[in-house]
């Protein structure tokens, strides 16, 4: 069984190398013909290249582009069929461990045109133990929500690069260069900063009233 897996792996690697050679065929032809011509014709790099008919170049380029399109389409299709996981993110690993004991939604924050659930720890002793500010122990939930119908968004690769976030209910779509996780880290930083400002404003009011 292990031998079969190894053999399949080797076949897959060889197939990949052949596919990549086809993608690079126009460049390989250019340099091999150029090098051959340079050595055979006393330093004339372009003599053999010029002798190759235009239709050969066109065929090589069409094959190369077709394989590139096919490969990209395959990657996009695979990403469409990935199962989506739900998880919370914080840059602090200790807070991530504490989140296993439970969290609750503390705020819904719009960022970059979509809605993000900001979570707070159920266990408030962490702030006491580490002396960190309450807003610094917040987490963010992935996936984010659709701004129109508040359903979970799904992420997949976009054909032309980057990602496409889409809502399966209302078909809301957003193209982005960032995956959920990186966008979430930005959204969390912005949310923490906003919540800190709100808390400071409230404290000032209390002081004035006091
Ligand atoms: Zn929606």
Characterize this entry briefly.
It is built from seven helices and seven strands; from the N terminus they run ααααβαββαββββα. The protein has 210 residues and is of the alpha+beta class.
Descriptive report:
With 210 residues, the protein is an alpha+beta fold. It folds into two domains: 79 residues, no CATH class; 123 residues, no CATH class. 54% of the residues lie in helices and 18% in strands. It has seven helices and seven strands. The strands form two sheets. It has a four-stranded antiparallel sheet. Strand 2 and strand 3 form a beta hairpin. It is elongated and about 90 Å long. The termini are far apart. The site of zinc ion has 8 residues, from loops. Zinc ion binds next to loops.
Topology of helices and strands:
Elements: H1 2-23, H2 25-40, H3 47-51, H4 54-80, E1 87-89, H5 93-99, E2 103-111, E3 114-121, H6 125-130, E4 139-142, E5 153-157, E6 163-167, E7 173-176, H7 180-209
Zinc ion binds next to loops.
Strand segment count: 7
The amount of beta strand, in percent, is: 15-25%
Oligomeric state of shown chains: single chain
Bound molecules: zinc ion
Please give the count of helices. 7
Please state how the strands of the largest beta sheet are arranged side by side: 1-4-3-2
What integer value in Å does the Rg equal? 28 Å
SSE-based structural type: alpha+beta
- Summed over residues and divided by their number, the pLDDT gives a mean of 90
Q: What is the 3D form?
A: elongated
């Amino acid at each position: 069984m292990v031998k079969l897996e190894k053999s399949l792996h080797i076949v897959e690697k060889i197939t990949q190398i052949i596919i990549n050679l086809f993608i690079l065929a126009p460049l390989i032809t250019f340099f091999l013909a150029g090098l051959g011509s340079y050595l055979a014709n006393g330093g004339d790099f372009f003599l053999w290249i010029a002798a190759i008919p235009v239709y050969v170049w066109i065929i090589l380029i069409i094959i190369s582009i077709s394989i590139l399109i096919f490969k990209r389409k395959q990657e996009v299709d695979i990403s469409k069929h990935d199962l989506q996981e739900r998880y919370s993110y914080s840059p602090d690993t200790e807070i991530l461990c504490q989140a296993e004991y439970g969290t609750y939604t503390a705020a819904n924050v719009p960022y970059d045109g979509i809605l993000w659930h900001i979570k707070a720890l159920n266990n408030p002793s962490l702030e006491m133990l580490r002396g960190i500010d309450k807003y610094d122990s917040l987490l963010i939930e992935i996936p984010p929500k659709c701004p129109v119908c508040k359903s979970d968004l799904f992420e997949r690769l976009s054909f032309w690069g980057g990602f496409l976030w889409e809502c399966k209910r209302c078909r809301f779509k957003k193209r982005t260069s960032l995956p959920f996780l990186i966008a979430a880290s930005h959204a969390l930083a912005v949310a923490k900063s906003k919540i800190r400002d709100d808390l400071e404003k409230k404290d000032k009011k209390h002081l004035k009233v006091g």
